[in-house]
Amino acid sequence: MAERNGSVADRPGFGRAVLWIALAVLACLSVFLVNGRPLFYFDTVGYISQGHSALRQLGIKGESPLAARVEKQEAEKAANIAAGLEEPGLAEIDSANTVDGSRSSVYALAAGILARLHVLEGLIFLNVAAVLVAVWLPMRVAARRWGLPVPVSQAVAMPVIVASLGSLPFFIAYLMPDTFAPVLLLVVATLTVFGRHMRPWEVLLAVALGSLAIVSHLSHLAIGVLMVPASALVSAILSRRRWWLPPALVLVIVGIGFAEQSVLRSAAKALSDSEVVIKPYITARMIQDGPGMTYLDKHCPDNRIPTCKLHAALQWSDDPYRITATHIVFETSARLGSFRLMTPEDQKAVADDQIRFFFEVLKDQPVATVMAFLKNTFIQSGWVAVDLTIPSDRIVAQNADVTGLAFSTFDHGRITRDTGWLGPLTTWHEVFYLLSLVVILALVLLPRRVPGEVKALAVMVILGILANALVCGGISQPSTRYGARVVWLLPLIATVMVIFARRARRFDAATEVRG
Q1: Which of 35, 84, 284, 368 is deepest in the core (most CB within 10 A)?
Q2: Which of 275, 236, 289 is nearest to 101 (CA)?
Q3: Which helix (H) or strand (E) holds 208?
């Protein structure tokens, strides 16, 4: 009966289906359309630059989207050096023989190719397509298994439209890979709950989308690793029959993420004799939180501990702000800089040591380290503003000479120059997400209102949001950007559950009539 009802829901009028999907697309694009330009971050230019460099290494020649910018920077630097305002090599260590593994090579290549073609807006439409497919897959399988009170097209569009009242359209318009974090969570939740019931091509599509999502940012790989045990636990609770299949599929996606990192290292070595270096985010986070600095104060100097080189660099200035994770990783000034002012060899040694350093600190101070991670996760969970998707004057200036957009330039749009609306919007978003969470918890706890599999889908998404908070808040640094990029999943899942609750009410009413 459920299969038959699902089939009926899958046969709406073509025009009506197109209308619903068009409304969902417009909702996703609302911020982009109102602003008139994409939103971007200071590292948007980093992805474009890295993608352009990769294309050159592959022998694909073309106009650089950063030619004017690089020429201007080199002229300004030469003038500053001649005037004695800047020392050669102080502002930034030469990185010709290193590749930044903190950025996704796949996303960078996509950005580089689209920038060369002057269609960088294609990243926005890639975001839209990924979100719609990630929502369509679970709704399609759920409709086939349980039936729906509305056509599948409407069941996909309605949650997306409601989620667009939150942060979703800001990240759709954002020329950064953040949209693929919630896409990964939706794919993992779908495979966990419905993997045993999906058709082969549906599984392949889910794995392909999940693989694209996991290779689009290094933090997504860490989130994927954390979601494997969650997938195994929820799958085993749902059914002992082939319980291992969903986590095995998630492991395939995680394996592809690790394979991408391995390919990047091999390609960098083969094409340009370069080493891949991942910035020491974990080390910097542990130093700022306290346990890492305590460990270094206790054990340094010691030539057997590579991170002691960073400890020495941190003593070059007595400014307390040099200890913050952001300054450690990115700052280049003599007053606040440390890591970036070290020799390239020492930078690589510290970066390569960060995993070993984490476990050494954990062994040395287990309670303090765990408490720091939990504190950062808690803080991260409550930070949901979209402020970091809005380019500041400094970010606009940084990207001003970058080309690659088809219909505009990297400049302020209609809503980014004056951000007086940001405070009221943040308040609305916080209330909206809290109400969504209340709806989810109520429908999870109420018996027989929503099918168990749909409840499990909601649980997996919430676990994914927490995993995102642990990875980004605990390993990197609490940031509104990291929270806002996934929190729109709450209103989306709340709407999905309401749709199924409505289906249950209709079923109960029909049963009473027949009785």
Answers
A1: 284
A2: 275
A3: helix 200-214
Query: What is the C-alpha separation between 234 and 106, in angstroms, rounded?
Result: 31
Burial of 345 (0-12, 13-18, 19+ CB in 10 A): exposed
Q: How far apart are CA 159 and CA 148, in angstroms?
A: 14
Q: What is the pLDDT of residues 56-85, one digit of tens each?
A: 888 888 777 876 555 455 445 445 445 544
For the four alpha carbons of 268, 355, 280 and 181, in that order, the dihedral sign comes to: positive
Output the CA–CA distances (angstroms, integers) from residue 173 to 67, 122, 167, 498, in the order listed: 25, 10, 10, 28
Q: Is the dihedral of CA 33, 39, 45, 46 positive or negative?
A: negative
* Residue range 106-121, pLDDT digits in tens: 999 999 999 999 999 9
Confidence of residue 331 (pLDDT cuts 50, 70, 90): confident
Lookup: tokens for 344: 């390239």
- Cis peptide bond prior to 301, omega within 30° of 0: yes
Give, for 96, the enclosing helix (H) or strand (E).
none
Which burial class, exposed, middle or buried, applies to 125 when counting CB atoms under 10 A from its CB (0-12, 13-18, 19+)? middle
Average pLDDT over the chain reads 87
pLDDT digits (tens, 9 = 90+) for 169-219: 999 999 999 999 999 999 999 999 999 999 999 999 999 999 999 999 999
Q: What percent of the chain has pLDDT over 90?
A: 63
Pick 94 or 337 by higher pLDDT. 337
3-class DSSP state of 275: strand
Q: How many CA atoms lie within 13 A of 157 on its CB side?
A: 17
Q: Round to whole Å and give the CA distance between 276 and 461.
A: 32
Three-class secondary structure of residue 409 per DSSP: coil
Strand partners, 294: none
Rg (the chain; Cα; Å):
24
**Nearby residues of 200 by Cβ (< 8 Å), 6 or more positions away:** none
Q: What angle do CA 494, 500, 502 make, to 5 degrees?
A: 100
Name the residue with higher pLDDT: 94 or 314. 314
Indicate the SS3 state at residue 515: coil
In the numeric block, which tokens belong to residue 81?
A: 């050096």
For residue 261, how many other CB atoms are within 10 A of its CB? Answer: 17
At residue 98, φ and ψ (nearest 5 deg) are -130, 150
The residue type found at 284 is A
